[in-house]
Design brief:
The protein is mainly alpha-helical. It has 3 domains: 41 residues; 53 residues, no CATH class; 45 residues. It is built from 8 helices and 2 strands; from the N terminus they run αααααβαβαα. Strand 1, helix 6 and strand 2 form a beta-alpha-beta unit. It is extended. The termini are far apart.
């Protein structure tokens, strides 16, 4: 019949033929209060930790804190960035694009914001996880070489060190391509 044996075993354990709910039993809001946002911003400014580390440190204090609630919406990011963004590459998550079955839902909010600011929004190829893997690996390399290894007294100090690291990294890659 084309169904998984584990699914059949699960059905056999049930007392009824009713389909069970697959949503959380208790609904909860992931929206942060103004006070919680202020705590998070102050914590991040004080510690200069990356968002993932802030999440781990703050979850005991703010239990409903999630990774997605930590990130600011794109408009806020664009407003604070000192340079123009030309292109954004994202995965195919519902935060960035509609699902195939939602093709008549209109223009996604993320795409609308990108259009407002003249930003090209590209999506990674579906079923090509190595694209996301490459981005995640580079982010991990950058974090390991900067914020996890050094303390910075200012944002300018971090920017300078990051720029030096990227220049060195790119130079080493060019040298490797020329000799290899």
């Amino acid at each position: 019949m084309g169904i998984n044996a584990k699914t059949v075993a699960k059905w056999r354990k049930r007392d009824s033929a009713e389909d069970t709910r697959m949503v959380p039993k208790a609904a909860h809001s992931t929206v942060l209060s103004i006070e919680e946002e202020a705590v998070i911003v102050a914590f991040r400014r004080h510690t200069l930790l990356p968002l993932d580390d802030c999440l781990c440190a703050l979850q005991p204090t703010i239990p409903h804190l999630t990774g997605s609630s930590l990130h600011r919406f794109l408009r806020n990011f664009i407003a604070r960035l000192p340079c123009r963004i030309h292109t954004i590459l994202t995965d195919n998550g519902t935060r960035f694009t509609h699902r195939k079955q939602d093709k008549y839902a209109g223009h996604h909010i993320f795409d609308r914001v990108c259009d407002e600011h003249g930003i090209e929004h590209r999506l990674t190829k579906i079923s090509h996880p190595w694209t996301n893997g490459q981005v995640e690996r580079m982010n991990r390399t950058l974090k390991k070489a900067t914020v996890r290894r050094h303390h910075y007294d200012s944002h300018e100090q971090l920017k300078s060190h990051l720029s030096d690291f990227v220049d060195t990294y790119n130079y080493a890659r060019r040298q490797k391509r020329q000799t290899g």
